[in-house]
Amino acid sequence: MTTIVVLVEQSQGNVRRASLEALGAAKSSGARVVAVVALVDGSESAAPTLAKHGADRVVVLKGDGRSSPDRSAHDIAAVVREEGAKACLAAASSNGKQLMPRIAAELDSTVFSDCTGLDLSGATPKAVRPWLAGKLIATLESNAPVFCATLRPNTFAPRAAPAAGELVTKPSSAVLKALVASIDAKGGGKLDVKEAPVVISGGRGMKGPEHFALLDELAAAFGNAAVGASRAVVDAGWRPHSEQVGQTGKTVSPQLYVAVGISGAIQHLAGMRTSKVIVAINKDADAPIFKVADYGIVGDAFEVVPALTAAVKAVRSQR
Ligand SMILES: Cc1cc2nc3c(=O)[nH]c(=O)nc-3n(C[C@H](O)[C@H](O)[C@H](O)COP(=O)(O)OP(=O)(O)OC[C@H]3O[C@@H](n4cnc5c(N)ncnc54)[C@H](O)[C@@H]3O)c2cc1C
Fold this sequence. Notes:
alpha/beta, 7-stranded parallel β-sheet, 5-stranded parallel β-sheet, binds flavin-adenine dinucleotide
């Protein structure tokens, strides 16, 4: 049986959903799955959750409290070698994106980044990923010794797949080429646009930062939504860069993406066109965003958004 190693991330003591999705993708291939909890000091408390989602083995790397991407990558690559894994997967999160190239370099391999599809069943792994700002969807075959890939959040489903979850604790190595001295976290505690199942994004059509309260209210009505923004809005200083969706921002793939007062420039589409359902609200019927929208509302955001918020609240109150 082949083995796949999955890098697991935690946030505030909980396993991140994007990591459970990566576990689900690994488990779907029928492989034996080894979950590695590695960043800074991994926690054993993740083990029961990981076992429920398909981890046959959970390797927790215990460090000395200091964070080093080089050390994490070195230690995860060592687990891949020890387990004889044919693949190593992680979420295409900030951590996944910075660690996987290092892991691949350690394994003399290459990286398939931000994948939206995988086929690990055959002798030659295949990855599907958008190219050229989402204009092309490429299917790539791997001839690398170990298939290393990051997976776009919200693209693969977590699986309820009870497994042994055998817990193994290992000390981290002494590799410390780069050391993270401190982290200044902004927007802590907020749902990240990359992982939220619903994203409500605002553009220049919102007219000013004060009007984003309307989008915050709509997001709160959904209950599981994050607020995103176009680059024009971020450049104007209305919203933080952490919320920017697009080519030079974040790539999102939620169940529902609502674009409010966003024209639909190609650089914005690059970050959201793989969303499952796209709703556009724009007062210009010719706005390019309508070309990718599943549902379009031609109207003034300042009338449509409050009405939508009231409708969402009404539906949810009936549940
Ligand atoms: C190298 C490069 C990288 C870039 N990266 C990104 C990126 O990552 N993300 C990104 O978003 N952009 C990016 N851009 C910028 C992009 O080209 C656009 O300039 C930007 O997306 C436009 O933002 P917008 O849609 O908010 O504003 P606009 O293009 O000004 O559109 C505003 C829209 O609001 C509508 N509107 C106005 N009033 C209302 C109202 N009352 N109700 C409803 N609708 C209304 C208008 O009809 C219009 O369609 C990049 C550009 C370059 C060159």
